[in-house]
Amino acid sequence: MSRDAPRGGRPRAVAGGGGHIARKRFGQHFLSDPGIIDAIVRAIAPRPGEALVEIGPGLGALTNPVVALSNRLTVIELDRDLAARLRKRAELDVVESDVLKVDFGALATRLGQRLRVIGNLPYNISSPILFHLLPWADQVTDQHFMLQKEVVDRMVASPSTGDYGRLSVMLQWRYDMENVVDVPPEAFDPPPRVDSAVVRMVPWRTPAALNPAVLEALVASAFSQRRKLLRHTLGVWLSQRGLETHFDLQRRAEEVPVDEYVALAALASQQSASGG
Fold first, then answer.
1. Termini Cα distance of the chain
2. For a disulfide at 189, which of 6, 32, 147, 267, Cβ 3.0-4.6 Å?
């Protein structure tokens, strides 16, 4: 599994990579620590017959042990040289594409079941990938992703903490999430300059009925000025829409639990759908 690096990371040959050079334009860092790899595979617990999909397999650090347990794996790889290598393996179905262009709903239909998605997500587009997958959450069993640890901390953060924010609310609305493995820089070759972590994301089977765009706009307004009371930010947003509610605006954005934001977004979604 490859990983995008912070800017300025210098690519170099990867041990065991058969001469493959980590491409600077992809910022590739390859997972190489056997103990960390084993911990991640145990967290994923792949089984034969599952519709496993890996984003960015790279040189196969996770691909190999996962497919050894699952027998079959679909891989999404942008790097044409790595994709060509992967196609030589009969147990892999290779999708050579930018992951942000992949229709995961169509992929689930083709594979005939809900997907189990894994991947070492690029630093620079991790959030866009997470939001790209969001519309297909009902066609996913679970997701295990390695990301920059500070991103994982924000994803799983609780209210009234410094990490709690827009990303926390937007993802916790749709997923039950937990940090399952911490990954230090030295687990990669070459090592990035930041810590990483693996997050498990399990979609809620009965999420609140709402328009995600409304939730996104509502949360963006709430967190636009974190230090101000919500009456100065979200209060204005609600007033502009003529939405009457008992929602307590005498709080700051990070003090409000996810379920309260979700309930308010559901109400605003209903109003929007009715033309109010």
1. 48
2. 32
